[in-house]
Write a structure and sequence with these properties.
heterodimer; A: 112 residues; mainly alpha; Cytochrome Bc1 Complex, Chain D, domain 2; 6 helices; 54% helix; globular; B: 107 residues
Chain lengths: 112, 107
């Protein structure tokens, strides 16, 4: 009996480890928080102005986990860009999860 | 005299055009084998911690690779990967991934 319990426990742990870690964001909430993102990331052909000029990355369809990691890297200073450094300061952990969920999802906003 | 003017004007025009990064899609594909393990075939990664590259803007990809190489952008895996890449390699890879289908502009 003990053996069975232990086995079940081990299997549960293994299964939970095997599942991909999903960011707990809400795409619908995320859409309401994009006002600071869309001015650069939502405009076709938009480029950074400083310190070097290149097209801002496309976010649509990107993995949520990667987007969360990127935003947190800007917050910690591990990654740096003048515009992004300023913007991430105002984002809570929930904001980051929601934004990442929005850009990763196929949800594009309320139907008008 | 008119001919000289025309030639001068043509030369001036060529030099005034913006310099687009060169790059070769086929060469990029050939060099992408090392990237595939994490970023997936054709830049669509299945592991969510590794970003998709397919369809990303070419100059952003090129800028990122250069930033990893210069050390401005830090990532232990990428730091190792870019060491052997030449500028031409980075341009080829950036062009190849930019041409694949995946990421899109989202407002």
């Amino acid at each position: 009996m003990m053996k069975l319990t232990t086995m079940t426990l081990c299997v549960s742990v293994l299964i939970s480890l095997a599942l991909p870690a999903q960011a707990a964001g809400d795409p619908v909430m995320g859409k309401t928080k994009t006002s600071m993102c869309a001015g650069c990331h939502g405009i076709p052909g938009w480029r950074t102005a400083y310190p070097s000029v290149y097209s801002v990355p496309k976010l649509g369809g990107q993995h949520a986990d990667y987007l969360v990691a990127a935003l947190k890297a800007y917050q910690s200073g591990e990654r740096s860009h003048p515009s992004m450094d300023g913007i991430v300061g105002s984002l809570s952990e929930q904001d980051i999860d929601d934004l990442a969920a929005y850009y990763a999802s196929s949800y594009s906003g309320p139907v008008k | 005299m008119k001919k000289i003017l025309l030639v001068s004007a043509s030369v001036a025009l060529v030099f005034s055009l913006p310099v687009y990064a060169a790059g070769n899609v086929e060469a990029g594909k050939a060099k992408s084998s090392a990237c595939m393990a994490c970023h997936g075939p054709d830049g669509v990664s299945s592991v969510s911690s590794f970003p998709k590259l397919a369809g990303q803007n070419r100059d952003y990809l090129y800028h990122s690779l250069k930033a990893y190489k210069s050390g401005k952008r830090k990532n232990p895996i990428m730091a190792g990967q870019v060491q052997t890449l030449t500028d031409a390699d980075m341009q080829d890879l950036a062009l190849y991934y930019a041409k694949q289908k995946g990421l899109y502009l989202k407002y």
